[in-house]
Write a structure and sequence with these properties.
Largest sheet: 4 strands, antiparallel
Order of helices and strands: HHHHHEHHHEEHE
Structural class: alpha+beta
Number of strands: 4
Strand content: 5-15%
Distance between the termini: 40 Å
Strand order of the largest sheet: 1-3-2-4
């Protein structure tokens, strides 16, 4: 069952990108070979071949989506300029035609604050900043509609939730 959910998550976040879905299918079909092909990336995350297959598949999903420009992984203490550069470059910003201006973001803010500001600006568009939980102190960020978010929240495994990101000060 987990395979169908992860593939559907990939489909929603990538807006049905065939290259993403093909790579994700490979990850799901032969997780061991997928891990071996990307061993160095997994080891950077302190994940080895004997770890939980769900974690290996989920991190595979994240890496595939990042390689194709649908998500960006940002450290919790990211600087505004870096956050803006990577987040504003995501395909979801363009697909959803979301306005994003660096001037809206406070230099001394953080990802939660910046995403909260963006969510507020995008309220009328019914869109938001969201993240895939990967059990780390970084954020795997993407944009989606609120309707897509509701579906993603139901599909995501409990230990790796997909949630709206942001707070307001």
């Amino acid at each position: 069952m987990e395979h169908e959910e992860l593939l559907e998550i990939a489909r929603i976040i990538s807006d049905g990108d065939e290259a993403v879905l093909k790579e994700m299918s490979g990850c799901l079909t032969d997780t061991e070979a997928f891990y071996e092909a990307r061993r160095e990336r997994y080891e950077e995350r302190c994940v080895d071949a004997g770890d939980d297959p769900l974690k290996i598949r989920l991190l595979g999903l994240v890496d595939i989506l990042e390689e194709h420009g649908y998500v960006c992984e940002r450290d919790w203490k990211d600087e505004k300029e870096d956050f803006f550069y990577f987040f504003s470059s995501l395909h979801g910003i363009k697909r959803l035609k979301l306005d994003m201006q660096e001037a809206w973001l406070d230099e001394d803010g953080d990802i939660e604050e910046w995403c909260g500001i963006l969510n507020e600006k995008w309220t009328d568009r019914q869109c938001c900043a969201a993240a895939v939980g990967i059990d780390s102190d970084s954020y795997v960020l993407f944009t989606c509609t609120l309707e897509e978010l509701a579906r993603l929240e139901k599909l995501a495994p409990a230990e790796y939730p997909i949630e709206k990101v942001g707070r307001y000060e």
